[in-house]
Structure formats: structure tokens, C-alpha cells
Design goal:
The protein is of the alpha+beta class. It is built from 16 helices and 16 strands. Bound molecules: histidyl-adenosine monophosphate.
């Protein structure tokens, strides 16, 4: 026998019940997004490598260590998308989507790729659903974006997540704060690698998980205490509007995001039952990104929600997710004439919005009933010689065995009745 081929390392499959749950989670998150006026955008899975180098930031882990980058046959460097914001911005600039009504509100979903060390909840192909709202600096928009994610998780049924919120300042107040932080860090006892990090990206040091580092950071200056007047006003307005959306959050002044483009309002959703990979979603403003990528100087804000991790969180909370039943009715034909009737019948049942399936492969009654069970069919109709002769068909509800008799003509209404009665 030939050796089997496995999926690449760190790349999950979602099959059968896992597939049902995955799709249900994504749909629940999506319904919040589409109820708020966001339009779907389908984006390329790979882009010019420069898009991420310039857009996400060369010194980030994502760009410096985690990208799947290779040369195409024309020797151009391309990269499997590690995140969605840069690609959306590229499309907005390239197609002039920012020349009409503002803000442009877009959503997307699909796989992203990061060459991280795989572990529970950390994959090399990860799935996100995200939104980007471009071209309005209005704090009410920040609150809307955050509220959509918050309500999306509530829609899924999650109870235990935390929204962490802060402001990272802007091109006016960040540089002087950064200097202040660097000065503070230069007086600490840090190893060489951390000292180097403090020079390149001092904010990242605030996020260092090691106790000996954290102990020294207690009196570190924080960006929220060094915001300019505009950023401070913006942040207090965001909080005001968040209250109107009934969103609860905790202030997280030491939060650091893994991507360089963030400015002002920044947030993350954490789930305490997920261990080390607790971030189920995150986002924020990126007011300099469009100009950085050669477009006009418009602001933007958005989020990316991790569908894989949201599913893990839902499971950790013991939620029953998605309808595992594949069919409303499963027809079991016994014999050639019965099979012809079954094929005609599933076709017309499907036309009347009943999810109908049948036993293929001329299997016997026992095997077919087992299949109906596996598919969690809600009802079963057996078609044998007796039924063909009498033209009376029994619809059996699988949950409790209740049976009703029906003609073929009334099959669809009787199936609906039996399902809805439960
Ligand atoms: P991010 O925080 O890098 O943000 O990713 C968003 C979410 O994707 C994370 O919170 C996490 O749930 C999920 N995720 C990331 N990496 C992995 C992984 N290796 N395995 C499983 N799940 C993962 C962004 O990507 C930004 N583009 C979000 C954004 C949109 N900001 C503004 N607009």
C-alpha cells in the first residue's frame, strides 16, 4: 500500500462535526458584522512581500520570523498573507475605494499564514474574520468596531472573555513617550537581547513575561499617561461611546500588539480558559498605514478575530455549537422501484427547502439506519414494497421514535410538522 500523506505541520482540518462547529462560529461572528453595514471583500491569499515589510513593520516577529515567503517563477518575492489589514489597504488604494463615501467599511474572512511553532491554539494556517473601516477619525467608529467584536463573541455564547483596551497615542505623542521609556529602560538590569529590543522596539519590553523583567517595570512610564490632548480627548470619547453599546472592558495600559501599524485605540480579546494562546481577537486604529503604503493620508480602524481560537474558547466553555444534523429527512429505498421514487422525492423535497438525503449504494435497512444515525437525520422514511403498494409512507422522528403516516404529496408538510413539534 502507498504511504499516506498528512497535512503540513500546524495546519488544522475541520471535518464532520468540527466542520459544523467551525462554520457555525464564523457565521455567528459574521452576522454581527453584516448587521452593521460592512461590505464583503475577497482578497488574494498572497501579495507582494513589500506590502507586509512596509505595512506591518520589518522589526515585528510576524515579518522578521514568521512569513511564508518565496520567489514565484518570474523571480518576484511573494508572501502568503500573514494578516488582512495590509491587503485591504492595498486594495482600497489600488482601486480608489477611498474616493467615494467615507468611511469605507469592509469585511473579510479566510486563512492566514504564520510560520510559528505549532502548539495548542497556535497554527501555521490560522483563520480570521475581520473588518476594516477606513477614512473617519470619529471615536464613535472605534466604539462601533469594538462593539461588533464584543457582540459577536456574545452571539457565539461566550461568557468569560475579557476586552483589554488602551490608547497607543499618535505620531505627535508617541515619539516623546518612546524616548522617555527608552531612557527608563536604559537604567534597568536587562540581558543583551532585551537591551537591543529596548533600542529597536521599547514598547515590546513592556510585554516581557519574565518575572525578573516585570519586577523592574512597575514604575515604567505608560503611553496612556503621556497622550497629547487630541489623543486623550479621542480616548475618552471612545470610552463614552463604548458605554452606549453596553460594552465592558478593562484598561490595559501595558498591552502591546504584535504589529507595528497601531495608533490610538488598541484592543484585544482574551479568553482565560485557553492557556498561553489566550488572544481570541484583536485590533485597533492604524492612522498612518494608508500613507505608508502610498495612498492618501486617511485613518483606519479594524479587527481580526481568530475563528480557530473562538471555537476552542466555545468548547472550553462547554457550549453546544452548530446544528450537527445534516438532514431533515433520510430516505431509505429498498429495491430498484423504491430507489426511483426516492430520487424523485429528494429532488422535490429539496425544492421545498427540506434538507433531504438518501441511502446510496443499495444498502440494507440495518446499514442505512446506522447511516441515518451518524448523519443525525431528524426523520427517516423507509420505502419498501409495502409502501410502494399502499402509497402510505411512515415518517419516523429519530429523537423519540414518533411516527406519522403520509402520502408522497404531503411528505414535505408532514416532515416539517414533525420536526417543528419537537
Ligand atoms: P492579530 O492580533 O495578529 O491581528 O491576529 C488576530 C487574531 O488572530 C488573534 O487574536 C488570534 O485569535 C488569531 N491568531 C493570530 N495568530 C494565530 C495563530 N498562529 N494561530 C491561531 N490563531 C491566531 C491581526 O492580524 C490584525 N490584522 C487585526 C486587525 C485588523 N487590526 C486592525 N485591523
Amino acid at each position: 500500500m502507498n504511504e499516506i500523506i498528512r497535512a503540513p505541520k500546524g495546519v488544522p482540518d475541520y471535518a464532520q462535526n468540527d466542520g459544523v462547529e467551525f462554520l457555525a462560529i464564523r457565521n455567528l461572528l459574521e452576522s454581527e458584522i453584516t448587521s452593521a453595514g460592512y461590505q464583503y471583500i475577497e482578497l488574494p491569499i498572497y501579495e507582494d512581500t513589500n506590502l507586509y515589510v512596509r505595512g506591518v513593520g520589518e522589526s515585528t516577529d510576524v515579518v522578521s520570523k514568521e512569513m511564508f515567503t518565496f520567489n514565484d517563477r518570474g523571480d518576484r518575492s511573494i508572501t502568503l498573507r500573514p494578516e488582512g489589514t495590509a491587503g485591504v489597504m492595498r486594495a482600497v488604494i489600488e482601486h480608489g475605494l477611498d474616493r467615494g463615501q467615507l468611511p469605507v467599511k469592509l469585511w473579510y474572512a479566510g486563512p492566514f499564514f504564520r510560520a510559528e511553532r505549532p502548539q495548542a491554539g497556535r497554527y501555521r494556517q490560522l483563520q480570521q474574520i475581520g473588518i476594516e473601516a477606513i477614512g473617519a477619525e470619529d471615536p464613535a467608529l472605534d466604539a462601533e468596531v469594538i462593539a461588533i467584536a464584543y457582540k459577536g463573541y456574545k452571539n457565539v455564547g461566550l461568557q468569560n472573555f475579557t476586552l483589554k483596551l488602551t490608547s497607543l497615542g499618535c505620531s505627535v505623542c508617541r515619539p516623546p513617550y518612546r524616548l522617555k521609556l527608552q531612557e527608563f529602560l536604559s537604567n534597568l538590569k536587562l540581558d543583551e537581547a532585551t537591551q537591543n529590543r529596548a533600542k529597536i522596539n521599547p514598547l515590546r519590553v513592556l510585554d516581557d513575561k519574565r518575572e525578573e523583567v516585570q519586577n523592574q517595570l512597575e514604575s515604567a512610564p505608560l503611553q496612556v499617561d503621556h497622550l497629547c490632548k487630541e489623543c486623550e480627548d479621542h480616548y475618552s470619547e471612545v470610552r463614552k461611546f463604548l458605554k452606549m453599546h453596553n460594552v465592558q472592558w478593562v484598561e490595559a495600559p501595558r498591552m502591546v500588539r504584535g504589529l507595528d501599524y497601531y495608533t490610538r485605540t488598541t484592543f484585544e480579546f482574551d479568553h482565560p480558559l485557553l492557556g498561553a494562546q489566550s488572544g481570541i481577537g484583536g485590533g485597533g486604529r492604524y492612522d498612518g498605514l494608508m500613507a505608508q503604503l502610498g495612498g492618501q493620508n486617511l485613518s483606519g480602524i479594524g479587527f481580526g478575530l481568530g475563528v480557530d481560537r473562538t471555537l476552542l474558547a466555545a468548547r472550553a466553555e462547554g457550549l453546544d455549537i452548530g446544528d450537527k444534523s445534516v438532514a431533515d429527512v433520510y430516505l431509505i429505498p429498498l429495491g430498484e422501484a423504491a430507489k426511483e421514487l426516492a430520487v424523485t422525492t429528494i429532488s422535490s423535497l429539496r425544492d421545498s427547502a427540506i434538507r433531504a438525503d438518501m441511502a446510496f449504494g443499495d444498502r440494507g435497512l440495518k446499514g442505512a439506519m446506522k447511516a441515518a444515525d451518524k448523519l443525525a437525520a431528524k426523520t427517516v422514511v423507509v420505502i419498501g414494497d409495502g409502501e410502494l403498494e399502499s402509497q402510505k409512507f411512515s415518517i419516523k422522528r429519530m429523537a423519540d421514535g414518533k411516527t406519522i403516516e403520509s402520502s408522497i404529496a404531503d411528505l414535505s408538510s408532514n416532515i416539517k410538522k414533525l420536526i417543528e413539534e419537537k
